[in-house]
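User: Can you model how phosphoric acid mono(formamide)ester sits in this protein?
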Amino acid sequence: MRDDLQFDGHGRLRHLLTIEGLPRQTLLDILNTAESFISVGEREIKKVPLMRGKTVVNLFFESSTRTRTTFEIAAKRLSADVINLAVAQSSTSKGETVLDTVRNLEAMHTDLFVVRHRESGAAHLIARHVPPHVHIVNAGDGRHAHPTQALLDMFTIRRHKGDFEKLRFAIVGDILHSRVARSQIHALTTLGAAEVRVIAPRTLLPMAVEKLGVHPYTDMRAGLHDVDVVLMLRLQRERMNGAFISSEQEYFNLYGLTQDKLERAKPDAIVMHPGPMNRGLEIDSAVADGPQSVILPQVTYGIAVRMAIMALIMGGAETATGGRRA
Ligand code: CP
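Assistant: Here's the modeled complex, given as structure tokens:
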């Protein structure tokens, strides 16, 4: 379903809130634009002037290492001014609502908010209340969506493995609580993946997950057979209110990625993880740090992908669909 809140009256991307419903061409525009930003990170002077004079506020109501930091680096490489609101020390702790916090920062002429919140729908709520010249990027909302993570994952896959149409994917772990998995599934199916499998215990698979266009497996060895890309997920213990696994040891035995299980995948399969990783719970260190792992390149690519997203929605880079320049 197309999320019209994400586009302006001319069909140009205005906010990035979810992958669901985004046209394939929009995803390709972001990936192609990110390619052009990779070289910026390799120069001695790692800056371009596309967002000079613009103000970006990182508004993270939930903890983050990779997303917050790479958004800050990305915005600085685009020459924007960046503020990281320390939410724990902000007036949120005195009862100020999210919308009041945003309105006050908007009064300081913020152009773009990067928002992470524990509630699903928080970024949509804010996007509905900001004026037309203000842009929102969802940096993760509850169990709902993490679109920039999925896009950097797609970028990593395209760089390391090529055409989505020729590849089989396995997303492994806590599918039920994962906003990353939901966004990855929408991105992979939109980009024409040959097959997307999800592997998890029954308790961590959403009801009717097949309706998302994926094939569910509860046997990890069967699900990994002949796949090209293994996308591991973190066990989201902070979102669990009850017993979803019988024990951590049993979970690792059945669903932890070890070299032995990885041998079921194609010999040149790559291993991905969005981080933070629980070593020894969902992934063995020998695999996380091994030759098939692209986990750290994912982080590096995240900068170029987030530069592309901000430049496109601010109108600072051309898109095949929108085609405007600041
Ligand atoms: N992948 C991811 O969102 O990591 P952070 O929580 O560190 O931002």
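A couple of observations from the model: The first strand starts at residue 55 and ends at 60. The pocket of phosphoric acid mono(formamide)ester is lined by residues 64-67, 140, 149, 274-276 (CB under 6 Å).
User: Helpful, thanks.
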